[in-house]
Amino acid sequence: MSTPEPIIKSKQTEKDVNGISTQVVCTEFSNYIFIVITQFGKIGTLISVSPDSRANDITTPTFATKVLLGKDEPLTHVCAKNLASFVSQEAGNRPVLLGLALKDSSIDAIKSIKEIIRSCQVW
Amino acid sequence: MSTPEPIIKSKQTEKDVNGISTQVVCTEFSNYIFIVITQFGKIGTLISVSPDSRANDITTPTFATKVLLGKDEPLTHVCAKNLASFVSQEAGNRPVLLGLALKDSSIDAIKSIKEIIRSCQVW
Q1: I need a surface site. Which of B27, B62, B98, B100 has the fewest CB within 10 A?
Q2: CB contacts < 8 Å between A and B, how many?
Q3: Which of B8, B11, B38 faces A23 most closely, judged by CB atoms?
Q4: CATH assignment of B9-119?
Q5: pLDDT beyond 60 at A55
């Protein structure tokens, strides 16, 4: 039933981040990059991270974050921007749809998770 | 870098529905089933389909649909309910997160797409 070469590119991996099992799934759509980062097996808070077209200064791109599903907390926006901005930039400024279920949101953990996202590059 | 047996179960396929190439991706999370059905390569309109806990009559379950991203049109809610209700019921009443990008929303097409979803069962 499944196609030998899938049309929708998707990669996933599982790594330890500060001793916590972390699963990352990245899927490419023409208008979005979809990334789930979960330390609970849940899809978690769903956030859209979009290049902000209102920004004037083209040398420093800014991003608009919006919580679509789940708890809307300031830290969520910070983590989402931090994790997804580089993906959006590398993917031709496509917005990123991010599912985030983290036990550990430390700067150190976020840095490690960015490396895991990079290892699942589909864009 | 990738695990031999992925922890997050995901299946995808590509089929013709009334002559239109249709891609379906189903991914299982502990708290959601995530399904994208696309005839454009886009993630499309994002809808949550949840068993409605307010319903009194337990013999006929009802579902609440909410558009999280994209155009909020009545037909979208109808299609989403039609496509995702059986998945939610089969998956222990888990809600379904649905990405829907259809060129053809005819009853006939919806019926065929339900069969494709069934062939990508991850729940």
Answers
A1: B62
A2: 92
A3: B8
A4: 3.30.230.90
A5: no
pLDDT above 90 coverage of chain A, percent:
85
Residue A36 has pLDDT above 90, yes or no: yes
- Between B74-90 and B107-119, two packed helices, what is the crossing angle to 10 degrees? 30
Average pLDDT over residues B77-92: 96
Mean pLDDT of chain B: 92
Structure tokens at B2: 């990738």
Q: Measured between CB atoms, does A123 come within 8 Å of chain B? A: no
**B40 CB near a chain A CB, below 8 Å?**
yes
Give which of B60, B72, B34, B16 is closest to A32, Cα–Cα.
B34
Q: Helix A107-119 and helix A74-90: axis angle, to 10°?
A: 30
DSSP per position, chain B: ---SS-SS-EEEEEEEETTEEEEEEEEE-SS-EEEEEESSSS--EEEEEEE-TT---TTS--EEEEEEES---HHHHHHHHHHHHHHHHHTTT--EEEEEE-S---HHHHHHHHHHHHHT---
Residues sharing a CB contact under 8 Å with residue A27, sequence separation 6 or more, in sequence order: A8, A9, A10, A33, A34, A35, A122, B25, B36
Is residue A110 over pLDDT 60?
yes
With a cut of 50, say whether residue B3 has pLDDT above it: no
Residue A57, Cβ density class (10 Å: 0-12 exposed, 13-18 middle, ≥19 buried): exposed
